[in-house]
Prior knowledge:
The structure holds 2 protein chains of 2 kinds. By secondary structure, chain A is mainly alpha-helical. Chain A has a domain of 138 residues. Chain A contains 10 helices and no strands. In chain A, helix 2 crosses helix 6. The longest helix of chain A is centred in the middle third of the chain and has 87 residues. Chain B is of the alpha/beta class. Chain B folds into 2 domains: 218 residues, Rossmann fold (3-Layer(aba) Sandwich), CATH 3.40.50.2000; 163 residues, Glycogen Phosphorylase B (Rossmann fold, 3-Layer(aba) Sandwich), CATH 3.40.50. In chain B, helix 2 packs antiparallel against helix 3, helix 6 packs across helix 7 and helix 8 crosses helix 10. At the A-B interface, helix 1 of A face helix 12, strand 14, helix 13 and helix 14 of B.
Amino acid sequence: MADFSLRSDQIDVEQIMKQIRTRIKEKRGVDYTDQEIRELASVKLERFLDPRAVRSDLLAAYRRQRPPVPLPSLPGPPENYAFEDVTIYESHRGPLRWIRKLLNPLLKLLFNPNPLIHVLNLQSKINDYTWQTMAAQFDRVGQRFVTRDELDTLNYEVLNNLVLELTKLGIENRNLRMRLESMGTRLDFDERRQRAFEGLAQFKPVAAPSAVPSQADGEDDDDGDGAEGAPGGAGDAGRPGKRRRRRRGRKRGPEGSPQGPQGQQAQPSAGSQQDRPASAPSSDIPNTPSGGGSDQQ
Amino acid sequence: MNLAVVVQRYGAEINGGAELHARYIAEHLARHHAVEVLTTCARDYVTWRNEWPSGTEQVNGVTVRRFPVSRERHPEDFAKHSERIFTLAHSVKEELAWLESEGPTSPALIKHLASSGSTYDYVLFFSARYYHAYHGWRAVPAKAVLVPTAERDAAMGVSIMAPMFRGVRALMYNSFEERAMIQAIAGNREVPGVVVGVGSDVPARTDPDRIRTQHGIAGPYVVYVGRIDENKGCKELFGHFERYLKQSGRDLTLVLVGTSIMDIPDHPRIRHLGFMGDADKFDVMAGARALIMPSYFESLSMVALEAWGVGRPVLANGRCDVLRGQCIRSNAGLYYESYPEFAATLHAIEANPSFNEALGRNGREYFRTHYTWPVIVQKYQDMFRQLDDENARGVSRTIEPLPGFFARRRRTLPPADEVLAQAPQGPVVPQRRQPPRHQGPSHGARDQQTPREQHGPRDQRTPREQHGSRDHRGRRGGGR
């Protein structure tokens, strides 16, 4: 705070405290450490970001919603059986197996076991197929989950960085805005000062009051001899008050040389001035408010 | 007029706030009236142990009558009672037990008031929260004038306090904040009351160079005067000040005046000068850039008033409503609630001589208008005159009876913390006068004497909730 002179009755402590607190509030963020920014990002984002657009508890909510869940392993299948055409007649007792084989024609006389054998055989194959398919699907889903978890971790990192960067940007934006306002204020001040100086500066034309008649003389000369009125003429050098004139749009000859051979020889330095664009100011022309001399050409 | 001043401790060497306040008032009123001080034999405010002999003695020309304390205070017992009263629903009987455990329990003093109260015209009770004030008021209700010296403390929310605030003849408040709090708690607006505070004998001339030479203090300094105690905010002050020096690189010293009951940082720019007499104290204050008051809880900071008296600005803890209100009303000090504010305000005060001097001038004017002894004594005289008029008109106060046997034991009273939380917070800000139309702005349009009660926006938590926990003596924060 700069030193300033005060009258006692000008002091309003409440107002001073308000100003001090406003300044502290504005200055905050300039020298935040990374740790402070992290804390701000997780606690009070709404200070810097639009709370309608970004949730301040985004990261915490993300962590809550996506806890890492381990994928359960698929329990193994029950033991499958192999059902062949002789399975229903099999026995670990040899005589019994012999009797069944002996009486098989009689059995087939009573009913046909072949469809039953066929269906059971098929069911066994279906069981194998189902299990293999399900295991394959489970593996695929498991792989998807693992990939998804890895992606979630990546998303979390991206979101975390995004929130941090947004916070930094918010702070930087505020700082830049303050700097811009400061620069704008300084610019306004400079402009006002410039205008004040311009107003104070006294205008002193190069042409002295005695030059007015000589300027009139010069115009008379131009009227008499246009070719000699070329700027930079030797006769002009000895007359400081004479307005120099330059012909606009003076065309060169078809060979590219000036029209008057006299001008080329007698005024070697004038050629460079004539080569300038018509709008280029001549350093020899005094900046007068009227400025009408050259227009007469 | 015969006056009695009743206070928990009394002695020339006692520098506690309310006790010193009582002594100053007694000594200055003694120039106009016959004043007798009724107090206990206790010197230590923690135990109330009888250390002075009972009987009568003269202290600085004032008659002092001492009565023994029948029961010393046991801090653990008091803390247990306080915990119950402040935080839980409780009964009137438990509140009375709490008051007795707080002390100083001196039935002899109360008995003397009951028997000899008629010999006094008025009895001034200092410190509303103690045993002697409550039971003394009940002994002589028709003559009781209370000087509450109340901080924003849960003790003020104890239900037996409200009938006392309504039943005394008059109240002499220390600050507008104190008055607002008590009126909100007790609803005693009809009881005559005036914000008085206390004066100080500020010397007309001071000699800061003498102290600088004596203690080898070079360069600018700020000063803290008072007990160097964590409960007074000194720890926070040390932290803030060291950080300020480190960050600002300023050539500034913190000078400490007072007895220390905590460790002081070993820092070349923190100087502890110890306890000082009044002359030295005023010289130190006069040479300082500012007085810093880091305390969270003050009913009236006499030191701040003295600093203003010698034309020095004050940098106060803004969490203390009273200090903040005084800074605003006087326009003679700034306040802080955090380190950035501390650094900004301290820099503003110590680095801008013109601003510093303007604040000091305001402080001197504020002190001269409100806190010189003629002003203080006149307020007491006016109050006595008003009470005399009431006596002539037959106006009297009645004591609200205590509940019956069973009602007294019913635990239906709300916790004192809750009662206190409902009282308004924040400084009492003077209402600005609107400038008259077409007549240009008005300068300094502040009603210093009777500000309208406008409480500034504050944190909804009570200061006690924000800072400090209950100490071993059953009080929280910076009380005793």
